[in-house]
Amino acid sequence: MCGRYTITVTLEELMLRYDIYYKYPARYSPKYNVAPGQQVMAIVHDGEKNKLGELRWGLVPEWAKDEKLGFQMLNARAETLADKPAFRKPFERKRCLIPADSFYDWKGTGKQKQPMRIMLRSKEIFSMAGLYDTWTSPDGTRISTCTVITTEANELMADIHERMPVILQREAEEVWLNRSITNTDILRPLLKPYPSDGMYAYPVSSRVGNVRNDDELCIEPLSLLL
Question: Which residue in 33, 102, 115, 169 has its CB near the most CB atoms, within 10 A?
Fold first, then answer.
């Protein structure tokens, strides 16, 4: 699964990367340890332009009776999106990009698990494929939430974990956000493992396991912290 990631760039870099030219109204700060349940940055398309906003990580379907269901919907398996009631409609109509510049996963088993930071060799921002939905609480509060789509591991990730987030190729981002495309047969081929030769990984401190730790020490190579 994908359970932690980073987005450490400036707001200006983020907006430039996604061709967003309006003034972003909310506060933004780099994140070194984004965790489930938090508000995360996401990109959607409104039919005319890309829009940057916040979604809560953990998808709550619009038909859910309780928002706690979101804690079970942090990730969505690419292979079964069309089969799951929570993901079927969002897959057709409510797709988003979740910007990141790395993600974390844990290598090994038991108490010997080693957190690893995985990123592109270019160190550029990349887009994780996501789905979103909006749930209305009994008191009328609207909550917009998202999930990160995962796929089978590439050769690099297979040594760390059997799954990895879907990282879209740059040319696939526009297709993924295109609201006029509802044929999932067109979209499904986009949800494949990113080429392993374009990525690398290195060990980091176990402090990333604590959501309260959100600073540059989270991404320091372990060898530099010892």
Answer: 102
β-pairing, 75-77 vs 142-152, is parallel
SS3 115: strand
In 3-state terms the chain splits into helix, strand, coil percentages (rounded to 5) of: 30, 35, 35
Is beta strand 102-107 parallel, antiparallel or unpaired with respect to 4-7? antiparallel
Whether the CA torsion 9, 12, 16, 21 is positive or negative: it is positive
Measured CA to CA, the distance from residue 178 to residue 45 in angstroms comes to: 7
CA–CA gap between residue 35 and residue 74 (Å, rounded): 10
Predicted TM-score of the model (pTM): 0.95
pLDDT tens track, the chain, 226 positions:
689 999 999 999 999 999 998 877 778 999 999 999 999 999 999 888 999 999 999 999 999 988 888 888 999 999 999 999 999 999 999 999 999 999 999 998 777 899 999 999 999 999 999 999 999 988 889 999 999 999 999 999 999 999 999 999 999 999 999 999 999 999 999 999 999 999 999 999 999 999 999 999 999 998 765 4
Amino acid at 87: F
